[in-house]
Design goal:
Elements: E1 12-14, E2 17-22, E3 25-30, H1 41-53, E4 60-65, H2 90-95, H3 98-109, E5 121-126, E6 129-131, H4 133-140, E7 143-147, E8 151-153, H5 168-175, H6 177-186, E9 190-191, H7 192-198, E10 203-205, H8 210-221, H9 226-238, H10 244-262
Parallel strand pairs: 3-4, 4-5, 5-7, 6-8, 7-10
Antiparallel strand pairs: 1-2, 2-3, 8-9
Length: 267
């Protein structure tokens, strides 16, 4: 996270999202604590823009939120006939054609997609409620550090909907099909202890220590050479799609590239 002495002001600050950059670390902050950082299409567009504005120097992106809640999920105003100012309401979208609805949801998903880019490592610092879209935004990141008061919940199914903001894939990968199904269908809270024990979170700390723990993790992530981090991330992300032999081949190819680069023989 940027230190006050180096803070040159936000690169982006609108619609409940602020982006600041301090050399190799970027921080994306949800900035509407009065509404528990409830999400809207405007916020999603701002998150997408934040990803596009990252300079090439950034290696670690920290996602955090102001206030007691990380994000209470989708702003319920989306389901009113009026919707948000200047936006089609969700009811209007439902009345539109299939292609239009698909394209709109795909646009929303972009806000949740870029966090797993190969050239960065993203870390979500999560406190209090992370519900629905808030849960899915935390799941969009590579790593999660949580406060001991965290409460994850996937409430979409309880509302007659499905989780559609890219959260189902990482959830199943992290906790397995059966637990993911139970979490989604019951809409229950997942606490810090369960999050750590099931792999949803890497670390749980007292709320007052959350920012410090994330700073320490970010510093540790920057210790290894960038190219080695990128290659390792790609290897691990592809491991579940490859069989054992294919993974061995991928490891050899990645290591050959690293050795040639270290010897100054890379392309």
């Amino acid at each position: 996270m940027a230190s006050p002495a180096q803070d040159l002001g936000p690169a982006l600050d609108k619609d409940g999202v602020r982006l600041t950059v301090d050399d190799a670390i970027a921080t994306v902050t949800l900035t509407n604590p009065a509404k528990r950082n409830a999400q809207s299409p405007a916020l999603w567009r701002a998150l997408t823009e934040a990803g596009r504005l990252l300079p090439g120097s950034v290696r670690v992106v920290v996602l955090r939120a102001e206030g007691k809640s990380f994000s209470a999920g989708l702003d319920r105003q989306a389901f009113t006939p009026e919707g948000f100012d200047g936006e089609p309401s969700f009811l209007d979208l439902a009345r539109g054609g299939d292609a239009e609805l698909d394209a709109t949801i795909a646009e929303y998903q972009e806000a949740f997609t870029w966090w797993r880019r190969s050239d960065i490592v993203s870390v979500a610092a999560v406190q209090g409620h992370a519900i629905g879209a808030g849960f899915q935004l935390a799941l969009a990141c590579d790593l999660r550090v949580v406060a001991d008061d965290v409460q994850f919940a996937m409430r979409e199914t309880s509302l007659g909907l499905v989780p559609d903001l890219t959260g189902t894939h990482p959830l199943v990968r992290l906790v397995g099909y059966a637990r993911a199904l139970e979490i989604c269908l019951t809409g229950r809270f997942v606490t810090a202890d369960e999050a750590v024990s099931t792999g949803l979170a890497n670390l749980a700390v007292p709320a007052a220590q959350l920012d410090g723990a994330v700073r320490d993790l970010a510093a540790a992530l920057l210790a290894a050479p960038r190219d080695a981090v990128i290659e390792t991330k790609a290897l691990l992300r592809g491991a579940l799609e490859r069989d054992h032999e294919a993974q061995r081949v991928a490891e050899r190819a990645a290591q050959a590239r690293r050795l040639r680069d270290l010897a100054g023989l890379g392309e």
